[in-house]
Amino acid sequence: METANPAVFTQNETGQGAGAIIGIQPDGNEFLVTPAQPASVGDILSIYCSGLGAVSPAVPDGAAAPLSTLSRTVNPVTVTIGGISAQVQFAGLAPGYAGLYQVNAYVPQGVAAGGAVPVILTTAGVSSSPVTAAIQ
Fold it and tell me: What's the predicted TM-score (pTM) here?
């Protein structure tokens, strides 16, 4: 098993508070998730992070992930939103970027609405520190 040390980027760049999370509505509209523009059940959250370990196909260190073929994490990634398991659609390197991981997960039914709902990523037995996302 590859080692991992997941960490979600945050809007204030401190590693705490609101995550660097883009909401994607079913109609394809994208927005930065904030208390003024919260995500809803059924939206996809694109969570930007680091430390998810090896990907396949492998990408050389410092090279941008290809746009043509997605490099997915070798180890499965799970996401909880407000303590509820979310369906992960994709976990791997963000296409076109070097060293940036992206995890796409659906906002699950039953998440309590709030301006600071905890979001946690887990891979290879290691969980990220919680960040928050506004959910309505």
Answer: 0.95
